[in-house]
Amino acid sequence: MVELKTDKSIDEMYVTGQVVGQALTAVQKAADVGVSLLELDEVAREVLRAAGATSPFLGYRPSFAPTPFPAVICASVNDAIVHGIPTGYRLRDGDLVSIDCGAELGGWAGDSAISFTVGRARQEDVRLIETAERALAAGIEAAVVGNRIGDIAHAIGSVCRSAGYGVPDGFGGHGIGRKMHEDPGVPNEGRPGRGMPLRRGMVLAIEPMLIASGKDGYHAAPDGWTLCTNDGSRAAHAEHTVAITDAGPRILTAR
């Protein structure tokens, strides 16, 4: 079931979304050569604590997961696409890092992700990240009353494929509200004009994921959480929580 949010509820979700944005900004600022992923997780925890927010990631255990998630951020490095568990790994010059973070505050959830490089960036990584952001922007632009879920999926997939990148099948965005994951699902590829109609008050987490090699294959790492590219190529992830309003899409996790 899809819950349509009131204007007041969307305003409250914006407050939660700003906490997520602040956490991601703080994590990116702290990320540097020699900094560990666990240290980045602690940076995000402090932002959540200061805001009086909790994490929907911490302790989360969907059906596929062998253990509850142990952190408040997903930290995916280089060939990791999404769901990376923060470890003692220390960032190296040229690493490509994707950070996904959520917050719960006042009964509402927010979810967002960014990708960036550490130290000296490789041009191919810069292009990959820029394309992920363009795909996200295209998906958001399609999130308007009267369109359908397939229009968002088609907009995202068209940007990714035209740039020559792979799109991992079976993973995409989702509805969000009182819980982090709600209906409907939002694929990263699809046919325009198909799927659920978009209505005023729907709130979606839109999140393209790109694989640099152009291939779509991935596998789960031994930790049972981290999804990695099959061919070792790098990946990028971008995400915003977006409300569908009569005035157009409203980004609730804007940084």
Automatic annotation (TrEMBL):
One Pfam entry name: Peptidase_M24
Catalytic activity: Release of N-terminal amino acids, preferentially methionine, from peptides and arylamides
One Gene Ontology term of the molecular function aspect: initiator methionyl aminopeptidase activity
InterPro entries found in the cross-reference section: Creatinase/aminopeptidase-like, Pept_M24, Pept_M24_MAP, Pept_M24A_MAP1
EC code(s) of this entry: 3.4.11.18
Annotated a divalent metal cation 2 binding sites: D111, H174, E207, E239
Amino acids binding a divalent metal cation 1: D100, D111, E239
Cofactor: binding details: Binds 2 divalent metal cations per subunit. Has a high-affinity and a low affinity metal-binding site. The true nature of the physiological cofactor is under debate. The enzyme is active with cobalt, zinc, manganese or divalent iron ions. Most likely, methionine aminopeptidases function as mononuclear Fe(2+)-metalloproteases under physiological conditions, and the catalytically relevant metal-binding site has been assigned to the histidine-containing high-affinity site.
Broad enzyme group: hydrolase
Keyword terms, alphabetized: Aminopeptidase, Hydrolase, Metal-binding, Protease
Gene3D superfamilies xrefs: Creatinase/methionine aminopeptidase superfamily
Domain of life: Bacteria
Positions that bind substrate: H83, H181
HAMAP family assigned to the protein according to its UniProt record, in alphabetical order: MetAP_1 (MF_01974)
Assembly and binders: Monomer.
Family, similarity comment: Belongs to the peptidase M24A family. Methionine aminopeptidase type 1 subfamily.
Task of the protein: Removes the N-terminal methionine from nascent proteins. The N-terminal methionine is often cleaved when the second residue in the primary sequence is small and uncharged (Met-Ala-, Cys, Gly, Pro, Ser, Thr, or Val). Requires deformylation of the N(alpha)-formylated initiator methionine before it can be hydrolyzed.
Protein name stated in the entry: Methionine aminopeptidase
Organism field: Streptomyces lanatus
Phylogenetic placement of the source organism: Bacteria, Bacillati, Actinomycetota, Actinomycetes, Kitasatosporales
Gene: map
